[in-house]
Amino acid sequence: MTWGDAMKDIKEKPTAHMPRSNATGEIPKAALKKAWAEAKEKSRTMLRESTSTQGDGDYTKPQTFEIDKMSAILHRMCHNAYRYRAGDSSFFRFQTSRLFIPAEAGDAAAVLIGSKGFNPFITILLCLVIGLLVGVWQGYWIGYKRIPPFITTLAGMFIFRGFGRLVLDNKTVSIQNKSFLNVFTSYINIPGLDDGKKYSALIVGVLIACYIIFSTMRSRANKAKKGYRQNTAASDYSRAAVIAVVILWYCYKLYQYKGISVMLVWVVAICMIYNFITSKTAFGRYFYAIGGNEKATQLSGIDTNKVYFIAYANMGLLAGLAGLLCAARVGSVNGSTGTSFEMDAIGSCFIGGASAYGGSGTVGGVVIGALLLGVINMGMSIMGIGDSWQYVVKGVVILLAVFLDYFRNKGKK
Fold this sequence. Notes:
Elements: H1 3-12, H2 29-52, H3 62-87, H4 101-115, H5 120-144, H6 149-168, E1 173-174, H7 178-185, H8 199-226, H9 233-256, H10 262-280, H11 282-292, H12 294-299, H13 304-330, E2 332-333, H14 341-351, H15 363-382, H16 387-412
Antiparallel strand pairs: 1-2
């Protein structure tokens, strides 16, 4: 509702308690503004109450408030981590990809499940295919026709946002199908182990902590054997210990709450797959090569057009997954779903260490950046900071990250 619509509605349906001018019989503008402000605050309160009770429990219960905050931050991190592949091209000199596939995939899922009654698992596959096809479309124009990525993806943002609103018929569509919601927002429950307290969370935390310490020891042994230069033992082991303690602490919180979220399983699986691709495969190293120096990469015999095409196809696929994840998390979809997602993705990449000059950045670093950005967003919301100041704070954080990147690259030169 716009200001004009609100004023018209209030004038046509004035409430009895509203003061009116004796001379003209009209409602004073101050009273209209006050009524509009009260209506906006009431709608925001209702929205917070409706969204806070979906998926992760009731935020109004003091005993679950802390773990709910953590779960919400984790969900935010998951969204940003998925959007990292959909919204960032840091390995390609940060050519911003403003794909609006998350909204499109979420819109399609909401309509197919909520309105048409489709099978939820078939719907998930269809939405992933839609995301992949949109990524293929973008990758073709960028990779083989060499249309600037910014222009291609900016046009795609408007096109697919428009398609999404057409699919929804400019309405808000809710998703009530339990099978669909459980795929993304449920919690792991092992019979016999998680009947009371969620012991599976503790077991997983201990195993991961042991693996981190063991992998650090093995990595140092391999580097020493091959004569590679490495950090001091105190530095490596202290870092591994801090990570292990944080994981154990978080798993202990999960043990006290509902256990391991399926959302966490999704994000860990995606991060592990793409971390392996970018760090352990030759094709994954092409991303870094093109980001560092595309011309030299092309002269070395690598088909850069193909790399671009596959990269954007992957972005489309994971952006579609992000749309499904967001739709399940919120429980409904409207025409504004996905707005500013690309900005959060860009911010996560910069905060996580991706360079604006290309050729650097890791999946793990971007996940950390997404987590920090999620903490910032959630913290400001809990403190009651207005939307305007939230944008200001996020902008300053991103600007500081870019400055650090600039000075770091300037020092290398």
